[in-house]
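note to self — DONT lose this again. spent like an hour looking for the file last time. sequence + predicted structure for the chain T wanted, 145 res
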Amino acid sequence: MWQSIMGFVSGTFKPAADLIDNIHTSEEEKLKLKNVLVELQNEVTKKHIELVSKQMDLERTLLDAQSSIIQKEANSGSWITRSWRPITMLSFLAIVILNALGIITLEEKFAHDFMQLVEIGLGGYVIGRSAEKVIPSIAKALGSK
């Protein structure tokens, strides 16, 4: 990741560095211009790294929140609270199978929207369960740094 950031930033500033090399002026003035360019490049790199770090923090916060919700649901005393996600996904699966077998027929627009909903539901369920398993390890590793 850091190599791609550095490659992007240095690639962005390379034309300016080449331009400085081709300016008809003293070596001292060229060095001054190159120093200014390097300082600017370093500042851009620093800001980019800060933004990536903030993005990772936000993603970690989101995953923590999602994991917390799933854990609270799983530890709830109510069977419906613990079971609503699996029940919903099993219902969706039944509709997909019945439609595939021709027992029911979904309108094309509804079928498309429904399949998107199933994809989101499955993705959220799988990601949520994965986050529930992985986040404690990530938090432990980040805590030790």
